[in-house]
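ok so I'm stuck.
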Amino acid sequence: MAWGPVLAVVGALVVVLLVFAGRYGAHRDELYFVAAGHRLAWGYPDQPPLTPLLARLADEAAPGSVWALHVVPALVVGALVLVAALTARELGGARVEQTVTAVLVATGVVTLVSGHMLSTTTTDTLFWALVVWLTLATSRRDDPRGWLVVGLVAGAGLENKHLVAFLLLALAVAVVATRETRHHARSPWAWAGAGIALVLWLPNLLWQAQHGWPQLELAADIRDEYLTLGGRLEFVGLSLVLLNPVVTVVWVIGLVRLLRERAWRWARPAAWAYVLLVVVFLLTGGKAYYLAGLYPALVAAGVCALAATRPARRTARLGAIAAAASLVALPAALPVLPVGTFAGSPWAALGEDQVEMIGWDVFTARVAEVVDEHDAGLVLTASYGDAGALEHARVLPSDVRVASGHNGFAAWGPPPDDERTVVLTGYPRAPSWMRGCTRVAPVATGVDNEASQAPLFVCDGPTRPWDQVWPQVTHLSA
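replied:
not stuck anymore, here's the structure
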């Protein structure tokens, strides 16, 4: 194992991410995860509990710190790069192949974006990569006891995001369909590994069942939004640039060689799993980044295949060229530009996640000002991001409650009935179930994000008691 150069790549990536970890602000999803983490449960309408737990740990370590929140994803993608190098080693890659694989994965656009934002996708990508690497290791050694470790990792991943189940099913089909690996399907170790994964997943499954399977409703919402011609073209287009176009050439070579190379027949299930999941997500309205955790293995295969036909120096040069190609998209992936420069640049249109990290300080300060002016006792938001931002900023008086009907926040309401004024955020117009509403100008955050698109409303209160109005307030959306 090329521990020295690989760990140097991992360390460099983590250092770069930590340097920029405190810039701009937290993403709206991160703010929601912190709020959910302070209300720990075995599940939420839109995700299992692991990412909210990580968000809470970061917030407990340094309350209100954006930098501390972003330390977690930096370490997670550092581990992802290490797993990519280990996968290259499993495929027979020597020091150069392992190092180049680490460089290509570390400088991929999706890696940089995920490494700067704590999300279910960040940790999900690592769990996918771990499952694939462990599956390859088990197949190459032909040691069925490895399935116990696969099941353990998969079970932990299922407590972070349900997409791991798709990977497990695809790998199972691919293992059975591959002559060199199908004997594993008869192994009691493989079934024991599946049982471990199911047991670890069970608490979240029970929570979903008790609450009417809201995750299925959200999945249907995503399907309706993305299962269009435009959505499918976007899936294909993003798949080709998810790391960067140069690396795409490498992983396509890796995919083809895994499917055709006789010496890699034991590793073929990883390639077939990718093909199967591309078809499944194209037909069901999935998103391109769902497959991010499979690319480290494909990149590793591509690097090893190329290195087998050319000198090590040319392979190393490929790594440098691919890393340089990612620099073009760097301002869209990381907060390297000043806010004003970024807001007026083309990268703002490409870096949607970066846009959603800007302006929360302005937004929360303005809401606090309106609350103080009108002696409001409640801030009701249409979005979990707005509610999470207000809780995270800690700018409101202790007797002012924040509530929202969006996803997990819906279960933490309704607010108590009282006669104090209500401030509404995120609603394009005053809802019919509120009375006496006065429009306040939208908050100017500096960029065109959700927090800046809707006005504030100051209202006398609901038309009926909150417990009767709440069903009209609550909503599920991705």
